[in-house]
Amino acid sequence: MPDVHTPQQRSYNMSRIKGKDTKPELLVRKFLHARGFRYKLHDKTL
């Protein structure tokens, strides 16, 4: 399947995609925190 975007368009699109702190992720974190769950996102001891 050929790519329908130019390399410049593809680069722009991919630069807009963020993998951290998405809206669903923040909703889950707020839900858990409000119910008393405490956690670390990047704990080195795991």
What does this protein look like?
The chain is mainly alpha-helical. The chain has a domain at 20-46. Helices cover 48% and strands 0% of the residues. It has two helices and no strands. It has helices at residues 7-16, 23-34. The longest helix has 12 residues, at 23-34. The radius of gyration is 17 Å and the shape is elongated.
Please render the helix and strand layout as text.
Elements: H1 7-16, H2 23-34
- Please summarize the sheet with the most strands: none
How confident overall, as mean pLDDT? 91
What spatial form do the alpha-carbon principal axes imply?
elongated
Could you give the order of the helices and strands?
Answer: HH
Distance between the termini: 41 Å
* Low-pLDDT sequence parts: none
Strand content: under 5%
* Total strand segments: 0
- Structural class per helix/strand content? mainly alpha
Cα gyration radius (Å): 17 Å
Number of helices: 2
Approximate helicity band:
40-55%
Summary keywords:
46 residues, mainly alpha, 48% helix
Structure at a glance:
This protein is mainly α. The chain contains two helices and no strands.
